[in-house]
Amino acid sequence: MCERAVKREAFKKKLYEHEVVAHWIAKSRIAIEEIRLLTLKAAHSIDTVGSAAARKEAHKIHSSDIWSTPTTTPMCFLLSPIPVPYAPPHCQEQMYAIIRTLRLADGPDEVHLSAIAKMELRDQARQLTARM
């Protein structure tokens, strides 16, 4: 998306100079960094405390807003470059099918949110009893 935005022009301006395209680029970068940081934190937790104790971090990745907010879903990454003039052709059917399948296979977001809440309440209860 960035490469196209830098190379192409529309209405006598580079595409990245158009506010809509700049917003697509910014939102995509923010969402990518969010998932990268959550994944890094989960991997660090697995390395330091083990996989059983790091379950909460893994659930955070699955229930992140990037997956549940329609404007930042992977589908948004798939569709956002399409209106950009002269964008390269996409085989959207296959990418769309893969993303939809992953959403179904992963399970509902509520399950991940419930698991995070349960683990967080358990951690907070331990800390509270340790202080008393």
Automatic annotation (TrEMBL):
The UniProt keyword set, sorted, is: Flavoprotein, Oxidoreductase
**Which terms does the UniProt entry file under GO BP?**
fatty acid beta-oxidation using acyl-CoA dehydrogenase
Q: Where is the Acyl-CoA dehydrogenase/oxidase C-terminal domain?
A: 3-61
- Gene3D superfamilies the UniProt entry points to: Butyryl-CoA Dehydrogenase, subunit A, domain 3
Domain of life assignment? Eukaryota
Pfam families named among the record's database cross-references: Acyl-CoA_dh_1
Q: Name one GO cellular component term.
A: mitochondrion
GO MF terms listed in the record are: acyl-CoA dehydrogenase activity
Q: Which PANTHER family match?
A: ACYL-COA DEHYDROGENASE FAMILY MEMBER 11 (PTHR48083:SF13), MEDIUM-CHAIN SPECIFIC ACYL-COA DEHYDROGENASE, MITOCHONDRIAL-RELATED (PTHR48083)
Query: This chain belongs to which protein, by name?
Result: Acyl-CoA dehydrogenase/oxidase C-terminal domain-containing protein
Task: Write down the species.
Answer: Neotoma lepida (Desert woodrat)
Q: What is the lineage of its organism?
A: Eukaryota, Metazoa, Chordata, Craniata, Vertebrata
